[in-house]
Design a protein that fits this description.
Shape: globular
Largest sheet: 9 strands, mixed
Distance between the termini: 41 Å
Length: about 240
């Protein structure tokens, strides 16, 4: 099997606890998974973009749309576990994980993560952007990011961090779900049977890498993306799309 520099993997599961069937929800005439795939194809050639799913409905939909798709196990606890399963079929130096629920992703943000990964192909990389809306800061569906001055991740939480004694909102960053994983990091991640303690509490899978001793380089990207975590977020995305389409 010939090794490639990198591929993009979009994990997609049907049984989301907060929003079942989320990848197939229609947003202005296109499914969410198709919209995410199209954004990825604006960043790289479609030949290196794959959807990873455990659901036949998503698999069939991707086939109908001409999207490369790989069936993964139902036992995967996280999207990163799905990316690891893909790594057993496709040999690459770096696996770019693009979350399947951010249909407004800026393709340049994906390119920027890829370029950083090319320079640092042994590092775990995750994107982030500034929080401009205090509602996002207070929302439990949005992971907040705290870094060292050099950009390495200190912690990520669904709680409102960092904050003052009075719990005020001053300045903060939120996670953008574009990651770069070296193959070895995926192997270490999936060698853990079950979620690690902080990962389990926060339900944020990148914390597993911190708990395993990995340094995670956070890259600031644009703030154009809106993650669809609950059905109400679809309206926000459609409102943005109506302004540009």
């Amino acid at each position: 099997m010939k090794k490639t520099d990198y591929i993009i993997v979009i994990p997609a599961r049907y049984k989301s606890s907060r929003f079942p069937g989320k990848p197939l929800v229609e947003i202005n005439g296109k499914s969410m998974i198709e919209r995410v795939w199209l954004r990825c194809c604006l960043a790289v050639d479609k030949s290196i973009v794959f959807v990873a799913t455990d659901d036949q409905r998503i698999f069939s939909h991707c086939k109908d749309k001409g999207i490369q798709v790989i069936m993964t196990s139902e036992d995967c606890l996280t999207g990163t576990d799905r990316v690891f399963e893909v790594s057993k079929h496709i040999d690459a130096t770096t696996y770019i994980n693009v979350q399947g629920d951010e249909p407004l992703l800026d393709p340049q943000d994906i390119i920027d993560v890829i370029e950083l990964a090319k320079k640092n192909d042994s590092d775990v990389i995750n994107a982030m952007c500034k929080i401009t809306d205090e509602n996002d800061f207070r929302s439990s569906t949005i992971p907040k990011v705290v870094t060292r001055p050099d950009g390495r991740l200190l912690y990520m939480s669904r709680g409102a961090i960092p904050t003052s004694k009075n719990l005020d909102f001053h300045a903060a960053y939120k996670q953008v779900c574009i990651y770069a994983f070296p193959k070895k990091s995926l192997q270490d991640f999936s060698s853990v049977k079950g979620k690690t303690p902080l990962e389990s509490i926060e339900d944020i899978e990148i914390l597993r890498f911190l708990e395993l001793g990995y340094e995670i380089n956070m890259l600031e990207v644009s703030s154009s993306s809106i993650a669809v975590d609950v059905p109400e977020d679809v309206t926000r995305v459609e409102r943005e799309l109506n302004e540009v389409e």
